[in-house]
Amino acid sequence: MTPLLTIKSTVARVAGWAWMVFAALNLIDIAVRGRDVASLVMTALLLLGCGIAYAVGLRPAVVADEQGYTVRNPLRDTRVPWRASRKIEATDALLFTFTAAGGERRTKAWVHQTSPRARAKAEARERRQAARMPDAAATALKHGTPTMFAARQLTELAREHQGKGEADQGTVTWSRPAVAAVAVPGALAVAASLLALLG
């Protein structure tokens, strides 16, 4: 399904890709020069770092389509059809309230996290700007923090698509690729470290 809106953190993605490039250059160096247990340990740690960079930096997103939205956090996915969505709000992060099996649930998105101080400053700045403009212009220019702007965009999509969705309950599942990206190199790092200690 074609996404209507995709929200990602540019800073996290840049940091994730920066680690991937750093790791790739070091892995090339290890492949050329390394032939000992220390090289094996370093390889495992670099791969573990890549798994973490993928899970924390590259993977998190909020993707909205015609049927609902998906909140991709480092290791879990939350899929919410529009008819199950109850509230989308901006706190220190995007906070989603939805119906699920067993009642109402909440989940926070890892993208666009905002400190309480930054949020308070943005709200104060908006109030100052709104006082100097006509109401219509102040409403049109109202953005605040990236978290607040994303919450407004998603709330508008929820209004437009209210009642749509393949189900009336949201689901939360583990992401197998993300878990594997961290668990496999993590196990390799532990095994390599034990081998280095015993050798």
Plain-language structure description:
This protein is α+β, with helices and mostly antiparallel strands and 199 residues long. Helices cover 53% and strands 21% of the residues. It is built from 6 helices and 8 strands, in the order E-H-H-E-E-E-E-E-E-H-H-H-E-H. It has helices at 10-33, 37-58, 116-131, 135-140, 146-160, 176-198, and strands at residues 5-7, 61-64, 68-72, 76-81, 85-90, 94-100, 103-108, 171-174. The strands form 2 sheets. A 5-stranded antiparallel sheet has the order 1-2-3-4-8. Strands 5-6-7 form a 3-stranded antiparallel sheet. A hairpin with a 3-residue loop joins strand 2 and strand 3 (68-72).
Write the layout of secondary structure elements.
Elements: E1 5-7, H1 10-33, H2 37-58, E2 61-64, E3 68-72, E4 76-81, E5 85-90, E6 94-100, E7 103-108, H3 116-131, H4 135-140, H5 146-160, E8 171-174, H6 176-198
Antiparallel strand pairs: 1-2, 2-3, 3-4, 4-8, 5-6, 6-7
Q: What keywords describe this structure?
A:
199 residues; alpha+beta; five-stranded antiparallel beta sheet; three-stranded antiparallel beta sheet; 6 helices; 8 strands; 53% helix; 21% strand
